[in-house]
Design goal:
This protein is α/β, with parallel strands linked by helices. It is 38% helix and 24% strand. The chain is built from eleven helices and twelve strands.
Length: 279
Amino acid sequence: MIVNNEGRSLLLPAQMSNAKTMNELNIQHLCKEFDLNSKQQKSRKTDSKVLKAVDDVSFSPRPGEIYGLLGPNGAGKTTTLRMIATILTPTSGSISFNGKDIHQNVNDYRRKIGFLTSELKLDAFFTPDYTFQYMSRLYGVDEETITKRKALLFGKMGIEEFKDVKIKNLSTGMKQKVSLAISLANDPDVIIFDEPTNGLDIIAAKAVEDYLLDLKSEGKIIIISTHIFSLVEKLADRVGILIDGHMQLEGSLKEITEETSLENVFFGLYDRVKGGRVE
């Protein structure tokens, strides 16, 4: 076992495989098309009746690493994550978990993932305590485990003292932390987070970042989508840069930033793809 400079234990790949069978997630040649009506065609200034939001995207997040998807708005990040989370069905391409297409037994796969999206809306009239228990039961989590998971996650996220406050009375940051806790209620093997620090102050964001590193040390497969360079640089082991639905660059963070900053790499790539246009 290795301990990093913050005192966290880090499992080596061999140690992770001994402790638990390593999971595999493979995304291959993923495409997603949406039909455009005449109004949408006009607003996009196109004659095409189809928008290709994601075009031939492939990558394989690994256990015990954080994979960062980086890109501007409209790049296809959220669409990609929604397909991995089975919210959207790919137009073509495949997503497999442990060698099986995720749509062969979608309910079994969903029990093993945690998905956080900015569009998750919590019921304003319920409390964090009730919401966590309700969502955990939907996952089929037993009552003893619900109690343990709630104590762990509410403690990590600083939710405990607000657990009986109606969600409508919580701050934006606290609502985000409750959403994070709920997305992890089932102790998922695959964690898919779209803008996980959205709405959080610097203290809360640091707590989330630290917990993601803890989950990484447990051998989880973690995918985060963001447009925040510093978050990717702090957390990600590997990075994929999406622009216009295409995976324009992928590799380890160390390789990609060997000669310059991630921000410089991104904007240099963006300029080459867009021909200097800023949209």
